[in-house]
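Lesson 9: reading folded outputs for more than one chain in a single document. The general rule is that every protein is listed as its sequence immediately followed by its structure tokens, and records are never interleaved. Here is the first one.
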Amino acid sequence: MRRFWVLLILFLVALPMVGFSQVKDVSLYLDFARFRYDNEKSLLEIYYFIAPKNAEVEGERWFRFNLKNKENGEVLATKTLRVDFQKGDVEHDASTAKRGMLKSVLPTGSYVLELMQINNITDEIVDSVGYPLSIKPFVGDRVTLSDLEICSNIIPNSPNKDSDYHKNGMDVLPNPTRIFSMSTPRVYYYIEMYNLNKKQHDDPYHIQVVVADKEGQVRFKKDYRRPRKYESLVERGAFDIRKLESGLYTLIFALTDSSENYSVYRRENFFVVNPKVVAVSEEVDEEGFRKSEYYTLPESIVDRMFEEAQYIATPDEVKIYKSLTNVEGKRKFMYNFWKKRTQHDPEFKDEYYARIEYANEHFSYAKTPGWKSDRGRVYILYGKPDQIDHYPSESNTLPYEVWFYYNIEGGVEFDFVDFSGFGDYKLVNSTKRNEYSDPNWRRLIQGNRF
């Protein structure tokens, strides 16, 4: 059993969590969990959190949820939200942050869940985050588990039965950001177990709940038994993270039926932001650091360098950098950040910043630097396209561009549309994996909407 856990943790801890977007000035967080509804359908709970990235964001913004059939692209459900941001609010501390939950009962099938920031006038997509999901029935002769829900709080014996968050006699408050700090120092979890008494045995089920760090080291563990006399059970619990350093962690819930030689588990990632425990997650080569360009850089320059490097930073690195409270820690972080990335490719950093410079020269518009534009991001990540097809504005079409990369994934394209007419080309489709995809994007270029 011990070997199984070591291998399981090392494999699972590196897997990504449900996505979030921080490319624009508003952060979009999206999460979900699936539970049994009946023998044929499942209950899908969708959790969202929308907040400004910085204190300069203000005004009205519009957002839209879409639940699509993955096979034919049909929109099965949609919901539009309006949020008014106040200047001075910041992410996670924003009084105007929008959070909530949507529910849907779905049959077996494949679906796509999307949360998009939209332009309320042109209906163009400003930013988006999405996740494919499948629905399968929770039936069978063996134990099955719902998804493992990461929560900000669980209130047992709650009388608030009309709340969207109320289930099985308790209020289960999700945390779609998966971020925990000293203001939210306990990681709560909720999971449902089904088909527990389908086999006639006396042996109880063995349950283990583990928190592991990104190196696969077990930091917390619970180990206990549950009887077979019930058809289903709810498990909930919490871990105190105040002694954990900043970083990425994995929560794993596993059930073992020793009489059937059968195990089933669920796992989810979460982040800890705790600058009081650690300032920088890795040891620094002090001599190399003192000789580096970062040793005396002003804090504003270090912040800008990390902001420009956001396209290649991991979610873990983003959270750690945000937790740093002094310029020394930031300087050392950036030294390590680029040291890791240039160890096997010494020219990588120079090439990256050369692409930023090119993007600023060619893709800037209004007061937005080119590296922050959609075309700039694509150029920085993937380099110069092998071919660019330009299509200027005509009487019945908006200007657009199609970029081709022949040596990426056997050939991919990126499609950009200038909705404003001022050179602000938005990415509306790509055939590259993990990029925004809309096969019907050409409908967006029809009609001059300036």
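And here is the second record, again sequence then tokens.
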Amino acid sequence: MSQTEQTETQNTGEETPQTDDAVVAPQNEATPATTAIGVVLIVGLATLVFWLTSNIPSWAEGTFLEAVARPIEFPVYAIIIGFTFNALLHALGVHGKLAAAFRTELYIKTGLVLLGATVNINVIIAAALPSILQALILITTVFLFTWWFAGLFGLEKQLRALLASALSICGVSAAVAAAGAVQARKEQLAYVAGLVIVFAVPMIFLLPWLVDVFNLDPAVAGAWIGGNIDTTAAVTAAGTIAGPEVLEYATIVKLTQNALIGIVAIALSLYFTLKIAPQEQAAASAAAGGSGEVQKVARPGAAEVWRRFPKFVLGFLVASVLVSTLLYFWPEGTAIGDQVSSGVSAASSLQTLFFTLAFVSIGLEFKAGALKEAGWKPILVFFAGTVMNLIVGLAVALLLFGVVFAGWLS
């Protein structure tokens, strides 16, 4: 028996039958050539996304679609195109051959590190204490509510973490960071990303309208918009509709929440490694005929925590601290500061590119059965979390930006 056969026997406990089929490579097996074709395909689809994002608003100008087309973000086009080509590649029978190029995790983790370079901690500190306090209160309240409410419906803990992170922090980016920390399935991430987009688009128009209805002060309005809309681009769109001063505060609050992605990911990684993993191991042991007692399952040590920790979060934090430090000592207007700012702009463009590649890959890797498996429960959870976020967000914005720190902000 060969070394390979011995390994297979050790792993499965059975001899591997020697048939002609075992010698022939599977039809869908990826090769370097097919992987290269997959890379060309996904880059081409990303280019198509950029082209649609740039041109559709102008094409819709003057039509009844103008109001809808203008604020739609690139993830919408990327995921739709990914879904479309997913079905097409499966129909042609070549999906498996190209799948090695659909590296969702690689693209999105790289994009998150680049995102860190655009989160300027100096701006957050200069924006004063209310932004930080609001972010902490909203993230804690909305995360815990969503986690609890999702638990009532019996959703998987990984999906609960993604829903709670997306709602309480900053949408898809937070869900991605959480997915890496809790080892969620790609289908769960795709589902949550879709919910974020579906809910964010109407919020772009709803919140500026409610700002006018309630006649909110610009600082309060900006804090409410920045703390409630899940994606940074949608916050920018809504803030622009509401006015330049509103946009300024909305951006600062959203940046504050973005800066907390890493902290939440670290907390989730520790929680799932030290508590959830032993529970799941005990349940598996019980199902296999063991005692199933959680206390008898060895808890992972520091090495296991480090192994499961999403390393890209450190890249995000390092990039943010590095850029913020450089801009603190050499602000824009100095030679070094201008170069750093140019680098940040380049990082932002690259971040958009890698996120686009990731969202296209999510669509290409998505399995329709995951939506049927999830059902209507995550939608109801996301809706309830959104309502809670709106109510608590408005109350906190009124308290901090309208009362406690109103004199300091004026």
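What the second record shows: DSSP finds 22 helices and no strands in the chain.
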